[in-house]
UniProtKB/TrEMBL annotation, chains A, B:
TM segment ranges: 6-27, 82-107, 149-168, 364-387, 416-436, 456-475, 561-592, 613-632, 638-658
Record-stated family: Belongs to the CSC1 (TC 1.A.17) family.
PANTHER family: CSC1-LIKE PROTEIN ERD4 (PTHR13018:SF138), PROBABLE MEMBRANE PROTEIN DUF221-RELATED (PTHR13018)
GO cellular component: plasma membrane
Organism, scientific name: Raphanus sativus
Alphabetized UniProt keyword annotations: Calcium, Ion channel, Ion transport, Membrane, Transmembrane, Transmembrane helix, Transport
Record's subcellular location: Membrane
The protein, known as: CSC1-like protein ERD4
Domain CSC1/OSCA1-like 7TM region: 362-632
Domain CSC1/OSCA1-like N-terminal transmembrane, residue spans: 5-169
Length: 722, 722
């Protein structure tokens, strides 16, 4: 790819970004779109705009994002979101502070050398085949063994030190953030409960529930409150879901009737297309009554007969719950295992019954599957990367040829094709990884998100970054690797400079087009308006159409991490990338701040438990960077490259120290945190009820009286099941 | 070494054993020796002999050992000793059960083949240079690629399966043993306390003690009892030790005066040899009074000014203490770190103040030092092993030559020299390793013993076993290793058979002479009688002279482990060693049972916390055996050797599963164990007092009143120190 193509690609991206920004400014001011651009504020019962929509300055959102405090974010979007912003700002600071010293020193150092002109050594250029202006600003332009390499070595040190410093500060900050949230004087239901798994079979004459109660009452005679035995709910859930569906359809039929004054009808056969024609309102009312009866029977059956080997145990105070969640209850570690209870809304109910060693086996099996997936995805990625160069496409699909001759289209295709292929490819993966993570037997959604985002990170670094880098000269590299299997670092280091332009374009595409689409919300907007016009009949259906969902960390964090890894690894080889990194994380911070405050609604709260994972992965990226630089300085025949070894060791020690100092505070609730006084004594009945799944609690959500009876009923049913 | 030398060495060992047994039978019946052969029973206030000493059958002790139950051992010598016997009997069972199948199958398989006669391949013989009858019974006599090797492969599987089965049973048993002991209805002081380290500096205006008390009172408002702040005691300890010394000397002077009616005198100068001559009784009385005053001043000063950043915190019930010991107290993991409190008698007081990261650094530093020690001890051991062959000695010390020509002496020297050199060499090490382990900052003696015995194990396996094996043909091996650095397993496997006779002799020496000396207690007996006759004047001094000490696991367990490793590794190559292994662990069980019941007095109780370490090391030895067999079957060009790979993986999985299932139960006190009811409500005042060090509690141990005041005083002093 030539320099012009790079500039053009940048220009196109910037142009798309400007168009999207304009669309956002225009669309977000129209009252009809308010539920797309301000759903979080609406759901929180706030005024979407503080002022009038017409007199608003189009850049108000920027001011609002900048003036919002961390506490605003916590209040409107939870601790997890605030932690995500700590991540964005930390990385932004790392790159900004790094460039402050690196750009003014390394760019002149590189520009005034002339290795490329002199040697015309292909292995040293940053573009494939041809030489571009970008190369003159990169390490490729430095002569081998040159003492200028000291500057680049120093830059690695500078970036590393800045990273350690910022990470340390951030970890401390997030730790405080988490502690403050957990200290909350408000009642957080899950702080009064623990999750108990691997409960052994009760002795003869005792029900599961009696057994659990007597076990915990022996240990906590004064603070044990109640236990909620986990049940096998698949059937009752199905009935309940059916019921909810019928209710919606009934509401819809009634809305149509109210609007058109003709009673709607529907057919009972396949997809409502064939079969008898019936009055919808009557039909669904009948179905609802039928389901309600079924639900009640099944509910009784579930509570009496389908008790599993897990339970949620409630205590009368937070300290006991925090103590209990951290302590060994049984001499045999694979029975009565305890953990902190997850939030009710994020419990993965069907995983709770999975046994200790089954969970372990599943976990390792899935690690193995992921490893295999990572390994074998590399092959198609390499092919995609090879095929999507235009020359290869022309050979494969001849009719493209005339189109490709138009210079403009040609350059656009040349600059975007590989990146687009890559992005599509990666979009297919997260669901698969999430499915795998849930299969591990993880009890909560936030934990599954962490597990899946970890897998996605290693996947994207290994496949996208290393894969693309090596694939550029796949066959040469394979040959080299066969001869010297230990030289993977050297091969990677030599291949890196050739792909600098590719990754510069990739980052630019991500921030211009990616964040442009993010802010303008074109896709949700169009879908919402289509649904509203043609499908939605009831208020509930309209709300469902605009409901924004959450920030979806499972894909967002790893994708940021990939940009971070790329920026780290090129920060010294092609320092210009630091500018792109700063823009990516700066723009990201700004735009997502707006989205967090106004758009997305968090679907769970894990009080920043994501942070240690983010921290470890930033360090992993730094380590990769240091190793790659060690290799590349070696390629440049710079003997002092060995000076990087202590830095690599420092990174490992830094990671170890951070883990020892901070990690347990994220795994457990520290007692000094749990012992803070509450505003008022907790309503334990309410806490208990919040953990009962919808399908078991009641079929009339308004009927509080009945709900109370249910929880009592459950006790009764469990005891009488003996 | 020739076969005759081996037989002679066995014979000599057996003869020494018989002599020692006879001495034991004779000496142990004499009433004057009762405090050497029955000290544990005397100290427990029991009758040393149940019947009369004269009518006693000389083999009664064997019957008594066999009929004693595990509960007897627990009662007389504690859980740790019982666990040690579980270890001995488990290994005994492994070897006995293994030989049952292996000896009748492998010995004929080996004896009827004739690889040695046919090939005269030196690398395949079990003795160095010459061929002996022993070789015919070993794997060395099996022809390469022979299908008989299937039998040997099967034997590896058999031994491994037997080991897994026995280890699993033993771990379960020990786990129950530990739980039962911890469930005890008697008050165990340390079950009511936790050890808190890394306490941050108190805020202004608070003393360390106030700060600690308020921190724990916030978290445990109802169950917190008191805290005991750790103090810097080196000076007060010194004064107290001086005082105790003077008291002993005064008692001694008084005893002399009572016996001889002349007032004893002593000189004040160097070693009591020079200087002024004084009346001893007056002199020591003066010194005692002086020290008492000094002690009291220093005690006040210590309590007021020398408070450290650690404390022992007491609770009013066991469950809270067990919960607290397992839970994270501070959001920052390196402050307020908690562990279960060790027994008062085994606390290493001066280690408690060491800070979190200092402990970590010390730990890794010491691992490094131990690794270096292991590596560099190998060199002198190799030399010892090379020099102590008789031929080399003759060259080095020519005047040995005439003596060495006498056949008898020659054979004795030939068979014992290397072993004796080895034993002396290893005797120098334990103190050094114990010093290193204590320097890690470990808070209790039992933990230090575990740490040091672990180091000793890896040391002895790596240096003695592998070292001696490889040193036999050091230079050949070094050459081989230089060419193929990955071939360490193969080199080890080829060298093993050559050393079979050496290790057979080593094991025999250990059980005949080692256990003979153990049972007959010749050395303590002689020392006791000498001391009693020439040195001891007071009753206390006599008791000190016969006080037996404990089983000293720090050296005993690793030395058993070395025998275990040797037996494992040769069990298939030279199956005869299984017989020796069975005798070693059988005889060991019998003789140590007698010693545990009658002689040794445990100096601490860790409730079997040693077991997981023993377990892991037995598995490590098994793994080494499997790897070595994989190598040796490879040397025999047996392609099916790969069938051992699944076995090696199984060992790793077995270890992992055991660790997950059982280990936490040894690390912590499970709550189902801690929640058992006590016989009576605990005397918390007494529990608190038991943790006050002697030097701080009082200078008159009988004065209970003063003791009570002291603990109150401590509260007072700490508070008034603000």
């Amino acid at each position: 790819m030539e320099f012009e193509a790079f500039l053009l690609s940048l220009g196109t991206s910037a142009f798309i970004f400007l168009v999207l920004m304009f669309l956002f400014t225009w669309l977000s001011r129209r009252p009809g779109n308010v539920s797309i651009y301000y759903p979080n504020r609406i759901l929180k019962g706030m005024d979407p705009w503080e002022g009038s929509s017409l007199t608003r300055n189009p850049f108000t959102w920027i001011r609002e994002a900048f003036t919002s405090s961390e506490q605003d974010v916590v209040k409107l979007s939870g601790v997890d979101t605030a932690v995500y912003f700590v991540f964005l700002s930390t990385v932004l600071r790392i790159f900004a502070l790094s460039s402050l010293l690196i750009l003014p020193i390394l760019l002149p150092l590189a520009a005034t050398d002339n290795s490329i002109k002199n040697t015309r050594n292909e292995a040293d250029t940053t573009s494939k085949g041809t030489i571009s202006q970008l190369d003159n600003l990169s390490m490729a332009n430095i002569t081998r063994k040159s003492s200028r390499l000291w500057g680049f070595l120093g830059a690695v040190y500078w970036i590393s030190l800045v990273t350690y410093f910022m990470l340390w500060k951030a970890y401390k900050h997030v730790s405080t953030l988490r502690a403050q949230a957990l200290m909350s004087a408000d009642v957080i239901p899950e702080q009064f409960a623990i999750l108990v798994r691997d409960i052994p079979s009760p002795p003869n004459g005792q029900t599961q529930k009696e057994f659990i109660d007597s076990f915990f009452r022996d240990i906590y005679p004064e603070t044990f409150y109640l236990s909620l035995v986990i049940t096998e709910n698949s059937k009752v859930n199905k009935i309940w879901k059916g019921l909810e569906g019928y209710k919606k359809k009934l509401a819809r039929a009634e809305a149509i009737f109210a609007a058109t004054s003709t009673r709607p009808t529907n057919k009972t056969g396949l997809l409502g297309l064939v079969g008898e024609k019936l009055d919808s309102i009557e039909y669904y009312t009948d179905l609802i009554n039928e389901s309600m009866a079924k639900l009640e029977t099944e509910q009784k059956k579930v509570l009496a007969e389908k008790q599993q080997t897990a339970a949620i145990v409630f205590f009368t105070d937070r300290v006991t719950a925090a103590l209990a969640a951290q302590s060994l209850h049984s001499q045999m570690v694979d029975t009565w295992t305890v953990t902190e209870a997850p939030e009710p809304r994020q419990i993965i109910w069907e995983n709770l019954k999975i046994k200790f060693f089954t969970r372990l086996i599943r976990q390792y099996l899935i690690y193995f599957i992921v490893a295999v997936t990572i390994l074998f995805y590399m092959i198609p990625i390499a092919f995609v990367s090879a095929i999507t160069t235009l020359d290869n496409l022309q050979k494969a699909i001849p009719f493209i040829k005339p189109v490709a001759k138009i210079t403009f289209i040609r350059t656009v295709l040349e600059s975007y094709l590989p990146q687009i292929a890559l992005i599509i490819f990666l979009a297919m993966l997260p669901k698969f990884l999430m499915f795998l993570s849930k299969s591990e037997g993880i009890p909560s959604r936030s934990h599954a998100v962490r597990a899946s985002s970890g897998k996605y990170f290693y996947f994207s670094v290994l496949n996208v970054f290393i894969g693309v880098t090596l694939a550029g000269s796949l066959f040469d590299n394979l040959k080299a690797l066969q001869q010297k299997p230990n030289s993977i670092v050297t091969v990677l280091a030599t291949s890196l400079p050739k792909n600098a332009t590719f990754f510069l374009t990739y980052v630019a595409l991500k921030f211009f087009v990616g964040y442009g689409l993010e802010l303008s919300r074109i896709k949700p907007l169009i879908i919402f308006h289509l649904k509203k016009k043609y499908l939605c009949k009831t208020e509930a259906e309209v709300k469902e159409a605009w409901y924004p969902g959450d920030l979806s960390y499972a894909t967002r964090v790893p994708s940021d991490m990939l940009i971070l890894t790329i920026t780290f690894c090129y920060s010294v080889i092609a320092p210009l990338i630091l500018v792109f990194g700063v823009i990516y994380f700066g723009l990201g911070w700004l735009i997502l701040r707006n989205q967090a405050l106004k758009v997305y609604v968090p679907s769970y709260e894990s009080y920043g438990r994501m942070w240690p994972h983010i921290h470890t992965r930033i360090l992993a990226a730094l380590l990769l960077f240091q190793v790659v630089m060690f290799g590349y300085l070696g390629v440049k025949l710079f003997v002092w490259a060995t000076f990087l070894v202590p830095l690599i060791v420092t990174s490992l020690i830094f990671g170890f120290v951070c883990r020892r100092k901070f990690y347990s505070g994220f795994q457990h609730t520290a007692l000094e945190v749990a012992c803070r006084k509450l505003k008022q004594s907790p309503d334990l009945e309410e806490i208990f009820k919040s953990f009962i799944p919808h399908s078991l609690s009641t079929h009339k959500p308004e009927d509080h009286l009945f709900k109370g009876a249910m929880s009592r009923y459950q006790d009764y049913a469990a005891i009488s099941a003996a």
